[in-house]
Design a protein that fits this description.
mainly beta, 8 strands, about 10% helix, 1 helix
Length: about 110
């Protein structure tokens, strides 16, 4: 009860609630252009996912669901020159897919968990 009172007083005084989250990330590349791959093979629910094309990429990256396709261009397009990363508020890494126009290229990503 005391902890709850302290939390409520903190909210009233600051107007904010703060929780500590772990920050993590990785790099995902697609071996064969035209074959969409998930960021993760296992279900991993995350917050504030940010994706950015790898700087050395020469082609385009398409981000979307399982049906994302470079030929249909039916995802969010990223390239190495994109200054602002693409952000997703909440996501399951196993349900975020990328496809590439050049095999071996991909994205770097960070998230809170």
């Amino acid at each position: 009860m005391r902890a709850l009172k302290t939390l409520l007083i903190g909210i009233l005084l600051t107007g904010m609630v703060s929780f500590a989250y772990a920050i993590d990330g990785g790099i995902k590349t697609v071996t064969v252009a035209g074959t969409a791959e998930a960021l993760s093979d296992t279900s991993t629910y995350v917050y504030d996912l940010e994706l950015r094309a790898i700087e050395a990429n020469t082609g385009l990256i398409y981000v979307g669901g399982a049906i994302v396709d470079k030929d249909l261009k039916n995802g969010v397009e990223l390239d190495a020159d994109t200054e602002i990363p693409w952000k997703i508020r909440e996501a399951d890494l196993a349900k975020v897919y990328i496809d590439v126009t050049v095999g071996g290229e991909g994205v770097g990503y960070t998230f809170r968990q």
